[in-house]
Amino acid sequence: MRGAHPDAGGSRFPLAARALRGAMPAGTRTRLPVVPGSTAAAQPTARATTRAPRNWALYLFLILLPLQNITAGYLPNIGGGFNFLNVMFLISLFTAMAQGGKLAPNEPVNTWTTVYAVYMTLSLLVGFHFVDDPTNHFNQLKDHMVGLFVVYVVQMSVRDWNGVRMVVFATLLPLPYIAKVVWNQHRSVASTHYTDDLRISGTFALLGANEFAAFCVTVAVVLFALLLACRLSRKWKIVLMGGIACMILGVLYAYSRTAYISLIMGMVVVIMVWRGRLKLILPLCLAVVIAPAVLPKSVVERFDSTTVEEGKRDESTELRIEYWKIAWANFLRNPVVGTGYHTFHHREINPYGRDTHNLYIRTLSEGGVFGAITLLGILLAVLRTAMREVREARTGTWRYALALGMMGAWVSMVIANLFGDRFTYYPVIAYFWAYMGLVMKARHLPPEDSSR
């Protein structure tokens, strides 16, 4: 037919069209029109799509992170302060680098993380001047950096939305086992009324009940946000509900008053910031009314025992206030750079030989004004990034729900550190940084299929 293009009908007669293309001069060849839905339409997409590499070492590292009872009790200790988890972190990092992984560009959290890490290293050197036996300080800083640098490894390991889901799933896998350990420990000490003997640390064999509860709070708040704000399949919803139940069990039976408050506040923030919050006003009111009646009596007694009135404080509260006074006096004597990383518990500085039980006052005491600025910088960078993503992300997506969860987790973490250190122990904080890494990388991934 006159005026017909040589490639017309190419989708119906592909062999003839290929022969015509081969006979045409290279400069005059054009792409064949493709009928939508045809086999030919799917071929370019299939050729263009390549399977993103998976960092399986990272997934194993994340699964083992909260299981101190296994990693410390059964896995070999390499010596020199290095353990199996340190090796797994390095393998995860090198795997991500070998796969060509890259950090999310132009993210303030990455910048402040580097600044914080550099200053903590310098602060380690400062501490050698103030204490006589800083033997373990390097190992403490090394473990702190392992938890912090998870934010880098996760960013470098995630290439697509399946990678995001794989990281979240890896953090879900150990939760049923953790709940089993918690329940077994609770049954061995269970009592109707609260005593300090009831407090358990779950799988955190080398840490205490407060640290274990803080870990449970972080995971519970982020999973709650995913369940609430992300369009998910029924299987994902069931898995998330199971994970939340496991973590709430851990919070309840750790009997940490700070964890109770931070969990409530974190979930309230998630609900209040969520764009569909009006749907939960009635259920939230009912939960507030019903909760005291269904909670174990020992949990209610532990919560009610909190008071800051002088003359009515328990011994733990009295001691913490005394430590804070000593830390503040130490800051006033050394206001610029403090006395150095991990020094406050030394008797040269604190006659009680204990920690401050307050991250912020301890940072002032050990790091001075510069240390406080770096800590404040990294905390504010996390909050601003999460707020930006909540504002810009599409409702119902993983990007939006993860950012929403990090806003709640940030509030929980900030509250928890008022009464202890929930920032430097890597089993406690590593999942926080893993989720933060996902929030930062999500901004730079292709638009997601929100139906999954």
Strand content: under 5%
User: Which residues sit in consecutive blocks of at least 5 with pLDDT less than 50?
Assistant: 1-11, 22-48
Rg measurement, Å? 27 Å
Total strand count, please?
0
- Judged by helices, strands and strand pairing, the structural class is mainly alpha
Oligomer: single chain
Q: What general outline do the C-alpha atoms trace?
A: globular
Order of helices and strands: HHHHHHHHHHHHHHHHHHH
**Major sheet attributes:** none
Put simply, the count of helices is 19
Distance between the termini: 48 Å
The percent of residues in helical segments reads 55-70%
Overall mean pLDDT stands at 83
Report on this structure.
With 452 residues, this protein is an all-alpha fold. It has a domain of 293 residues. Helices cover 63% and strands 0% of the residues. The chain contains 19 helices and no strands. The longest helix has 34 residues. It is globular, with a radius of gyration of 27 Å. The N terminus is likely disordered. One of its GO terms (molecular function) is ligase activity.
